[in-house]
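HUMAN: Forgive my ignorance: could you write out one protein's sequence and backbone structure tokens?

ASSISTANT:
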Amino acid sequence: MDKGAAAVLLIALLSLTALVASDGAQGLGDIIYDADDDLDLPEPGQLKEVGRERRQTWMGSSIQHANCRLEPSPGSTVQGSLFLFQKRWRWDYVKVKGSLWGMMEPKERFEVFFHEKAPPSEGDCDATGDTLFGSKGYEGYLGQVKAKGYGRATGFSRGSRVVTLESDRPNSIVGRSIVVTSLATRKRVACCTIQGE
């Protein structure tokens, strides 16, 4: 490699590094954790303002957006509201932002997944099929959430590089579901249908 080609490659790598840093997201495999993940939201009523802010930030540049209102399964108090966005011009990954609340035990942990099917009715989380699978393993995994306890809301801000909101692609998640599972009981405690807008 001559000096000119090496210089071009170095500039490209530095630009890529700056772009990742400016996005405020830290990647771990195919899951992206934003700087504002686990934001402390004391009141569920603040969710509307968070959603408005997220949409104002992303709507202008995203090619696709969707929402998902988490409803508790029978016997659960976990709820939430999530907004999904995709910006093809940068990384072509799906960003999931919003809030979960109703988790009563402090530090209780939950896992969040994309699932194959939408629940046939609100809170019917056992009917959402399996977690999305693919050649890379758990395509549907969005990581863990640690409860703040006493029903307080916590912010959720993640991203996935292996799914899309484009309905004509085989890895599309529109019309599928997001499911929250308790790590302690392995039960599905909340779920929602991903609805395109």
